[in-house]
């Protein structure tokens, strides 16, 4: 109950941020642009416009998988550290709230903020789709939106978790940027390097299972897997390109299965959050 | 049952010792003034009571409950005005008070509290990010009063308040105390506590060096006096002159005010002070002494006296 009170207050406070407004605007621009591009591309290749909402969602997934983490990390990284720096945490914790309640309330409140941002972006994207394409499967679109909100929640947990582990917003910000660099760039380079070291080439004839696993465990890959699971279509997982060509050694590993995306998302949300809670509960403010 | 009971508490940050074996008891229903210069460990003590930080050793109990294990139960009955607290920039003053009321499960009217601390209704509707220091203090006091707490903990409550605000603060402290609340408040300025406090504790370098009523403290240093010496001119080597006077046994503070030196010292040091000044080729045109102000007492305690002397 205490966490809900904190979440409500935090939502009211954080949703008024101007930078958030700008990021949401940018996001809306990308979704509408993605919708436009998708409709034009499919119009070029297939007479009569996009065949299915799935294709269009593919076009929207790309901006979402870049901008949702940025928005969520931006909204999350200062949640605890920022209040420790400014001293407003002493006001919050001077009231009868446990430290866990504050962290959980922050996660809920800021997830709400990110959800609003996503809903605005996707509503604009939806209008774009209606304008450019004409018809869209609302069920698929809503499912896609919900998985994206879950994805945003994961990055909020990462951001707030980081924020709870340090007393400086600078360090939390460095952590957030480091996380993005690791997950978006370093991880795939590392996978490629390992592939080269183990297989002797970066284009082996069959793809080893561990490489598929490695490419499936990042939150972004897990997001793709989860979309695939929800939509029942295969093109969003990390392994789909190899899978359709039957190139994977010993079949698709369980970690790369679409439904496992939800397990991975849960781990990416809960592990950093648990670490943040554990640390924050023990420190001197 | 004391409201606050601190027993043998030491708090270290790495190799720095903020508090060393502190024993302090605040009795139920009293107004306790917690005095000390900046950096003496006042906020550390308060943060320990509020479980914002944890002791290296020793025990902190509030309402006879362990401060760490029962932090939530304690905070439900406590109103807190932390030092240097920042409000939430994007929320209005009224939203802050409403949040405190909701958090405490109280049924106060936000407008009553806002009016009581002297914040205007207009200001309460504005975002707290634009508040002055004094408005922030009033707002935070309003949130501290939510739910008629049994214990009020105020850390440097007069910071940023104008004389009217400081008077309102004292009135509220008295009203709350009359209602039955225990008040524990810290300050580095003795003048703010002498008017309202039942008892005063003086903290210096992490030690409680004195604890008594105001009269008791006065009696402990009966010969303290304030000497105002007016010279014909400022000495050529004024720094050396100041240092020489400061180093005299029995002098606790020296403040130059143009050609006048204000010296807080013991009665028997007066002659030495005058002689020392004249060694710097200046003439004493006039000098007066007045009864020691509590401020001088406080300075004497915190700058000159050793714990052993004060304890007598």
From TrEMBL, chain A:
One of its GO terms (cellular component) is plasma membrane. GO terms for molecular function: ABC-type transporter activity. This is ABC-2 type transport system permease protein. It comes from Natrinema hispanicum. PANTHER family: ABC TRANSPORTER PERMEASE (PTHR43471), ABC TRANSPORTER PERMEASE PROTEIN NOSY-RELATED (PTHR43471:SF1). The chain crosses the membrane at residues 20-38, 58-80, 107-135, 141-162, 174-198, 259-278. The keyword Transmembrane applies. The keyword Membrane applies.
Automatic annotation (TrEMBL), chain B:
It comes from Natrinema hispanicum. Keywords: ATP-binding, Nucleotide-binding, Transport. Gene3D superfamilies: P-loop containing nucleotide triphosphate hydrolases. It comes from the Archaea. The keyword Nucleotide-binding applies. This is ABC-2 type transport system ATP-binding protein. PANTHER family: ABC TRANSPORTER, ATP-BINDING PROTEIN. Residues 4-230 form the ABC transporter domain. One of its GO terms (molecular function) is ATP hydrolysis activity. Belongs to the ABC transporter superfamily.
